[in-house]
Amino acid sequence: MKATGIVVEYNPFHNGHLHHLKQSQIQTSSDITIAVMSGNFLQRGEPALVDKWTRAKMALDAGVDLIVELPYAFATAQASDFAKGAIFLLDALKCDTFCFGSEEGSIASFEHTYNLLSSKKLEYNEAISQFVKQGISYPKALNEAYKSISRFSEEPLVDLSKPNNILGFHYLEAARQLNSPIQPATIQRVVANYHDDARETESIASATGIRKVLFEEKELSKVHSFLPSTSIAGLEHWLEHAESFGSWERFYPLLRLIILRQNKKSIAKYAEVTEGIENAIWNAAVKNEHFQPFMEQIKSKRFTWTRIQRMLTHIYTDFTWDQLRAIEYPTYIRPLAMSSSGQAYLQSIKKDLQLPLVSRVAASKENILLQLDIKAANLYYLGLQTNYGASMVGSDFRQIPFRQ
User: Fold this and answer.
1) Distance (Å, rounded) from C-alpha 345 to C-alpha 31?
2) Annotation-wise, does 11 bind a ligand?
3) How far is CA 123 from CA 43, 129, 130, 176, in A?
4) 134 falls in which pLDDT band (50, 70, 90)?
5) Is 12 part of any known ligand binding site?
6) Where does the UniProt annotation locate this protein (predicted)?
7) 224 annotated ligand binder
């Protein structure tokens, strides 16, 4: 069986994701699709709208054959490490191809960009350093450095100011650095861009736009046109039990408690907390009862909203610099859901897997990365502050992969 891999968050699974899934299958002529999916905390440093099990079930019902979890340490990392962890797992799962959505839509441009930055690595890194010294944010420094290096190429290059292009570049980079035989492919995003608001006249909206509608309107019916029926059913089931969607506004009382129960200096031990921002985080927690003004007080030209949220995620989950520095690659494959075809594929490659396959976490108590996932899941459910959330603490030990 020919397998293609995709890297997803599905927060939530919407019509754009369904388009990507179907086009990936067509473009790569694959028999099955394997998704590496983030757990309960995401790459932009925020709690998922609904938990990983609900999102995995949505993906399975929509036609993904195998959904495996991207460990917390990679799911909440900057783009390059996020991509490294995801592509490592797709390679370990013997995927022939991986396919990502991008604003660019041409894989040749990604190849040209990778070749340029590889050949001009010293100049590129020096330019980044110079722009950072000017006091601008790291993502903006990357973009400015890239512009300065682009003059060395006569080939078409990718616009690395676009969020999906950035991730796509890092996926290809990760595959090349792993010396993986897995082949890249891309399809162009349609209608909605990454941060666009949802428009009632369209059938495709960004996940960001859909979440915004859900948080502001508080009615699931307002987003029905953007979601397949399987996702609507999944969200309805979640609300029936959990009563609330996951969000930083919901989690903020616990986050604030965690910040204020320690001194400013100790906050600096958490992953990605740097350059004295622990002082701003602690001071903002003292003054603000709600998450939005708390964030607005901290944000600056040097630190983007996303970067601060990733720091807060690590503070919330007690993930430190020491833990982060000790992690290089995923150390297991953990299925969350699988179709009959996904099960057959796993069985066919099982003897050749270089990583342990974990279906029940109780059998892998010594795995450090897995323990981080379990802790993150428990803290996610506590952050919901509902009876359902409290009842789900420890559920990683009870839940087995969904099968179809």
Assistant:
1) 10
2) yes
3) 28, 10, 11, 20
4) confident
5) yes
6) Cytoplasm
7) no
Task: Work out whether strand 402-403 and strand 97-102 pair parallel, antiparallel, or are unpaired.
Answer: unpaired
- Is 179 assigned to a binding site? no
18 is in an annotated binding site: yes
d(CA 238, CA 4) in angstroms, rounded, equals 29
**Alpha helical stretches, state H, 261-365:** 264-267, 277-287, 291-298, 305-317, 321-325, 340-349
pTM: 0.92
Query: Is 398 a known ligand-binding residue?
Result: no
Is 10 labeled as ligand-binding? Answer: yes
Q: Give Dmax (Cα) for the chain.
A: 60
d(CA 147, CA 271): 29
Report whether 164 belongs to an annotated binding site.
yes
The total of other beta-carbon atoms located within 10 Å of residue 219's CB is 10
Radius of gyration over every alpha carbon of the chain, rounded to an integer in angstroms: 21
Grade residue 48 by pLDDT with cuts at 50, 70 and 90.
very high
Does 314 show up as a binding residue in the annotation?
no
Q: Is 115 annotated as a binding residue?
A: no
Q: Indicate the residue type of 4.
A: T
Closest residue by Cα to residue 314 from 250, 249, 372, 395 = 372
Q: Is the pLDDT of residue 192 over 80?
A: no
Contact between 214 and 222 under an 8 Å Cβ cutoff? The reply is yes
Query: Given this model, what pLDDT does residue 201 score?
Result: 42
User: Is 15 annotated in some ligand binding site?
Assistant: yes
Would the pLDDT of 189 be above 90?
A: no
Q: Is 165 annotated as a binding residue?
A: no
Query: CA-to-CA distance for 354 and 180, rounded, in angstroms?
Result: 14
DSSP tag of 41: B
Cβ(142)–Cβ(128) below 8 Å: yes
pLDDT tens digits, one per residue of 283-338: 999 999 999 999 999 998 788 899 999 999 999 999 999 999 999 999 999 999 99
Tell me if 237 is assigned to a ligand binding site. Answer: no
Q: Are 113 and 88 in contact (CB under 8 A)?
A: no
